[in-house]
Amino acid sequence: MDLLGMGISASVIGIGIILGGIEWHYGRRQGNNLSVNQGVWSHEIDTPNHHRFTGQLDLYNLTRKLEIMVPEVTAAIQLLADGSLEGIKTSVTVTPCHPDEPARADGYWFAYIIKVGKSTQIRVTIDINGSDLQTLKACWLQLTYITYGPEGRIPKRKDIVIPMQFPPLPISQNWRMTSAGKVLPIKTHLLSPLDSPVEVVRRYVLPHAQPGDVVTIGESPIAIMQGRWHHPTTLKPGWVAKRLCYYFLPTSSLATACGLQSLVDIVGSWRVVLAFIGGVIARGFGYHGMFYQLAGEQARLIDDVTGTLPPYDQFIVLGPENSQKVVDEIQRETGLPAAIVDVNDLKAVKILAASQGVSHGFLKQCLISNPAGNANEQTPVVLLRPSTS
């Protein structure tokens, strides 16, 4: 090779190294990394004809050295009820509460810069008026905010579910018999990240519990209370998710690009690809389900759109995290042994975590008929009482 050819080759290699470095750095980009929390909410007006909820929410710039601008924030609400919404009127306003700039009197949202590592606040006010509001179950707030920064102009959203209807405590006649003991499915209000597992157990379970009982909670309600759910519009399915999702059964929560991308975001592309290859090889030898073993626990726990009750049927709900920590906290704070379970109508019972000393066999015997149900029963909690004989 002559000197000219060697020079061209060296230049191509050099350009390749530079482009590779740029791509590597781009892959580690922070982008428009702005988040919004659930906020602190108060029920300011609570009458038969008027409800007012006010929430103070924080916007955080999570980047280490990038400024993020917020040129727009808008909000909409959807009411969930047991009956018609005819005659019920709603309004929602978003007011900036910036530390250095007062809100405008005309309600206009002016573009605001959130500095590196800083935050600001907004106040959301929801008014609901009508002649009969007793049928309302929950208010679903859909907050849309525009981030403007290194990634361009990116719309994002934050969804908050505010419960409005709290069912009465169950009565003793609702107990059901099983081969291992009695079970009591317990109806709750529509749970959200504004709730905690400990408080749910205190409110709905402790009034009926006695020594020896065990409380079980479904894995999806725990994940919902942990805020582990997101709208498909917030995801950007990549090459792996778009292609591999076609190879899963249609009933799988990984059979859509967004469902599989949720797993990719948790465990990474390479693990999903390697688990897929391993699953194909294992299937050739007659072994099924190897993908889920190799991809990790979350692969089995993700619920895609339609997988849970409204309004979470519009979202992808991940599996809970730190399940053992959750059940330990429930027992420590309430004195009641607990378990987090994944149960379905196919008589499959998976125990994610249980208090020390709780028999897994007892749990499976009590739950095999799925007393909590898989529809809209809204009974995420089941109290178990062993047989005395």
Descriptive tags:
single chain; 389 residues; alpha+beta; Immunoglobulin-like; 60s Ribosomal Protein L30, Chain: A; 3 domains; six-stranded mixed beta sheet; five-stranded antiparallel beta sheet; 10 helices; 26% helix; 31% strand
Folded structure, characterized:
By secondary structure, the chain is α+β, with helices and mostly antiparallel strands. It has three domains: 34-163, Immunoglobulin-like, CATH 2.60.40; 172-227 and 319-386, CofE-like (60s Ribosomal Protein L30, Chain: A, 2-Layer Sandwich), CATH 3.30.1330.100; 229-317, no CATH class. 26% of the residues lie in helices and 31% in strands. It is built from ten helices and 17 strands. The strands form four sheets. It has a six-stranded mixed sheet, sandwiched between helices. Strands 1, 2, 3, 5 and 7 form a five-stranded antiparallel sheet that branches. Strands 6-4-8-9 form a four-stranded antiparallel sheet, with no helix packed on it. The longest helix has 25 residues, at 3-27. The chain is globular and about 65 Å long. It starts with a helix and ends with a strand. The model is unreliable at 19-28 (pLDDT under 50).
